[in-house]
């Protein structure tokens, strides 16, 4: 058995080396995805264009404007009237507008209430949520500058402290999940294509006509891609440490064990797709549809699954990427042990057994009399 599996694996390695597309996908895709997503995805918004109309033109109004600008979250855009400020919002030249009324300085006393108007572009939810979050800090800064001799104390003070990611660094959140996305795409796409290619060219029947058992053929064909997947995992891990400085506080052995199980689930899924479609074109479409999109959008890689509608929240439970991303972030940032990741680890093992069982049953049903 070992000899036949090894022979098929060696044959597959030669085929991979001769195929420029497979080599490009295996080598270039992990590098491009890590660098692009690692540097491009940023959840902390800054340099938000802010249209400012100062109707008061007093020292107090300038202090207020400076509080916005010096926060470094906003870039001022000068306008000459409130309607002009709204026009900049309509035209997309600003995301927020600050309108200071002429009576601002007059009402700025302990016995009156000075008001300003802030308009936010709600079409961009991400920017709007960030602006609302920044306003409390800007208001506090402006009050301290306008009334330096007064102390503002509230009956209850809340001090927030962010654990595991104190600076809310987006790269610390994104990069640990990238391994899941890369493995999902790489494993499903390459596995589905290689087995489907054999079906399409008619060479699978020739292979099945040899003394080698069907299971050994599949095992030998998947083995090189499993090795490539492990190399990709190690590559992403090194990039996260050396390029993005993401801390790793958990067990590396536990991480690699989880990654290996996760890798096998998607190899089984790729095999299932190839058996069902037997066409390279269809396999590629199904691979992208079932690998890339769910891993990116429904796995918690970008959007937390806890905030999804109930149907989609439970639907994400059948996605192996969801559980591996949870494990990866727990091990990278929280330094969790085996007991903490046990629920996610158990679900990953369960999905592996289910996918492997379906793929093996379907393959045997098709090739064995």
Strand order of the largest sheet: 2-1-3-4
Largest sheet geometry: 4 strands, mixed
**Could you say which structural class the secondary elements and strand pairing correspond to?**
mainly alpha
Low-confidence stretches: none
Number of helices: 14
Residue share in β-strands: 5-15%
* Overall residue-averaged pLDDT value: 83
N to C succession of SSEs: HHEHEHEHEHHHHHHHHH
The shape, in one word, is: elongated
Q: What's the total number of strands?
A: 4
Helix share bin: 55-70%
Radius of gyration: 28 Å
Distance between the termini: 21 Å
Explain the layout of strands and helices.
Blueprint: H1 2-18, H2 20-40, E1 48-54, H3 59-70, E2 74-78, H4 82-90, E3 96-100, H5 104-107, E4 116-120, H6 125-146, H7 170-201, H8 203-208, H9 214-242, H10 252-277, H11 280-298, H12 310-315, H13 320-334, H14 338-367
Parallel strand pairs: 1-2, 1-3
Antiparallel strand pairs: 3-4
Helix pairs in contact: 1-9, 2-7, 2-9, 3-6, 7-9, 7-10, 7-11, 7-13, 9-10, 10-11, 10-13, 10-14, 13-14
């Amino acid at each position: 058995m070992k000899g036949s599996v090894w022979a098929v694996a060696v044959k597959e390695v030669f085929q991979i080396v001769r195929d420029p597309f497979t080599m490009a996908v295996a080598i270039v895709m992990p590098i491009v995805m890590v660098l692009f997503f690692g540097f491009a995805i940023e959840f902390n918004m800054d340099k938000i264009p802010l249209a400012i109309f100062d109707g008061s033109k007093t020292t107090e109004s300038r202090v207020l404007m400076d509080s916005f600008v010096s926060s470094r979250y906003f870039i001022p855009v000068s306008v000459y009237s409130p309607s002009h400020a709204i026009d900049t919002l309509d035209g997309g030249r600003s995301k927020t507008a600050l309108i200071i009324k002429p009576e601002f300085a007059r009402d700025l006393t302990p016995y009156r209430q000075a008001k300003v108007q802030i308009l936010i572009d709600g079409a961009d939810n991400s920017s709007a949520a960030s602006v609302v979050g920044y306003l409390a800090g800007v208001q506090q800064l402006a009050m301290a500058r306008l009334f330096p001799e007064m102390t503002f104390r509230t009956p209850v003070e809340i001090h927030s402290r962010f654990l595991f990611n104190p600076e809310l660094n987006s790269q610390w959140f994104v990069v640990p999940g990238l391994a899941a996305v890369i493995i999902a795409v790489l494993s499903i796409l390459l596995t589905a294509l290689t087995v489907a290619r054999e079906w399409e060219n008619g060479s699978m029947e020739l292979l099945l006509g040899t003394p080698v058992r069907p299971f050994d053929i599949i095992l030998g064909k998947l083995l090189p891609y499993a090795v490539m997947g492990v190399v990709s995992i190690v590559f992403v891990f090194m990039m996260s440490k050396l390029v993005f400085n993401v801390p790793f506080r958990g067990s590396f052995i536990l991480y690699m064990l989880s990654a290996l199980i996760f890798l096998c689930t998607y190899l089984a899924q790729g095999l299932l797709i190839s058996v069902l479609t037997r066409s390279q074109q269809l396999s590629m479409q199904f691979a992208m549809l079932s690998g890339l999109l769910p891993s990116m959008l429904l796995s918690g890689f970008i959007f937390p699954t806890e905030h999804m509608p109930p149907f989609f929240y439970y639907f994400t439970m059948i996605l192996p990427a969801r559980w591996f991303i949870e494990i990866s972030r727990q091990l990278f940032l929280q330094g969790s042990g085996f007991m903490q990741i046990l629920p996610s680890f158990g679900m990953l093992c369960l999905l592996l057994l289910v996918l492997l069982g379906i793929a093996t049953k379907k393959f045997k049903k098709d090739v064995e009399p």
